[in-house]
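SEQUENCE-TO-STRUCTURE ENTRY
===========================
What this section holds: a protein sequence and its matching fold, both as plain text.
Question of interest: how does this chain fold, as expressed in backbone structure tokens?
***
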Amino acid sequence: MIRFTTRLAPVALALATGACFATRSDVRILQDDLATTRAAMLRADSARATQIAQVAATLGAVTDSIRSANATLAKWQATVQGDLRGIQEQLLQVQELTGQSQNKLNDLRAQMEDRATQPAPGSVAPTPGDSTKPAGPGPATLYKLSFDQMSRGSHSTARSGFQDLLTQYPTSDLAPDAQYYIGETFQAEGNTAAADSVFTLVVSTYPRAPRAATALYKHGLFLQKAKRDREARQAFQSVIDKYPRSDEAELARERLRSGGGG
């Protein structure tokens, strides 16, 4: 641009002072300089356009990469959530099947207890006050009767039966389940505070029983619903620490991963 101005100055001065002083050579020089300048400007514009196109292409590629990454992340998250839901459903199914099997075993135990209390054929019926009088319902029978009442929705009657089991057979292997289901009857009636108190009692009284993990997990759910976030996280972590191999431990891990308890 400086060269063009320097070369153009004499010609322009000559044109300014009068056309008679401008020769054809000067006009040709001016035209050449104008053409050269125009070509240089076109090349510069073309170079800038190329650079802009390259930048636009790069930005487009980056945008596509980000969009693809977001799509992949969303798909991964959906897959993980689906897998976790599947795991939870399978755990619930296992728990249900396990509960059904346990109930069948309890039914068999109740039948055996009933048969044991029946007098043998040809035996003399016991008289009132006789020490040989058959005992009342055994723990399995009480458990079965109470569980059946709970299944029918008679929660108060079921709770009374479970309490009788705890009173008469406090050392029975069915005592932890009886205590736990007392909490379930309260929960079914909407008395969540009473239910939570019973669940915490299960954990403290029968810490090694299988029901303890379930009771502690439900205690965490109660705290979470009450917006006691820190305590809820502690309860879920306790499930993992104390019962790492339980189904409830996996559920507790999912609660913590998904922000359970805050």
Observations:
- Confidence is low (pLDDT under 50) at residues 130-134.
